[in-house]
Write a structure and sequence with these properties.
The protein has one helix and 15 strands, in the order H-E-E-E-E-E-E-E-E-E-E-E-E-E-E-E. It is an alpha+beta fold.
């Protein structure tokens, strides 16, 4: 009798031990997974909120509003737009889940071809929807003076040539665009040199991203930084 009872107790003990091992193994795997996820999240340098060098085939962390965005050889591409497919003539690609009022956005931009008539491409900021946003953009014209400018569309009202600078936009040449957004202050840079310093109280918050209009445009080395 005692022998049978001992055998039963031993069997119960063995089952409890096996369950503990399995549970412990699952806990370890979960911890490893969590540690791996933390390592990925911590892989960005301090002060960098978002970075994309477009090395993969998929757009991770982006929200395409419209357009046909594609990646090849570390370059993000947007083909020439069709008028009937556009919202106010623009294509947008915005970053999800970032601060909406204080940030610095950096990107390289170029036009692979000469202007068809007028080409625009650059940074979207304080983006709320396709009809309420700011843009820091390169303007490549066929017949007018090329320039870089801050463009605003707010409640149907457009404002051009804010903090603009004339230049000659060369096909295939990369330009480094930087815009700093802090409260109502907007500071812009081109290839490391200051372009404009504006104060604008419209659309005080909004997303960061990229935009094009009527143009084939290419982008690389996109960053969103803390201010």
């Amino acid at each position: 009798m005692n022998s049978k009872r001992n055998q039963t107790l031993c069997a119960i003990t063995a089952v409890i031990f096996l369950l503990a091992v399995v549970a412990g193994g699952c806990g370890t795997a979960a911890k490893r997974k969590a540690a791996g996820e933390s390592a990925v999240a911590a892989s960005l340098p301090e002060g960098v909120l978002f970075a994309d060098d477009f090395q993969g085939r998929r757009l991770e962390g982006w929200t395409p509003v419209n357009g046909r965005w594609s990646i090849k050889d570390g370059v993000l591409r947007q083909g020439r737009a069709s008028r009937e497919d556009l919202s106010e003539g623009f294509y947008f690609l915005v970053v999800s889940d970032l601060p909406t009022s204080h940030y610095c956005i950096e990107v390289d931009v170029r036009f692979p071809d000469g202007p068809s008539r007028q080409d625009f491409a650059g940074i979207a900021f304080r983006y709320q929807d396709p009809f309420n946003f700011f843009a820091y953009r390169l303007c490549d014209f066929e017949t007018y003076q090329d320039r870089i400018e801050v463009y605003e569309l707010c409640k149907g009202q457009r404002r051009l040539n804010q903090g603009s600078r004339d230049l000659v936009v060369n096909p295939q040449q990369w330009y480094r665009l930087v815009v700093e957004v802090e409260d109502f202050n907007i500071r812009t840079y081109l290839d490391g040199k200051p372009v404009g310093n504006l104060v604008n109280h419209n659309l005080p918050t909004g997303a960061a991203g990229l935009l094009t209009k009527e143009s084939k445009a290419e982008f690389r080395r996109f960053r969103v930084l803390e201010l």
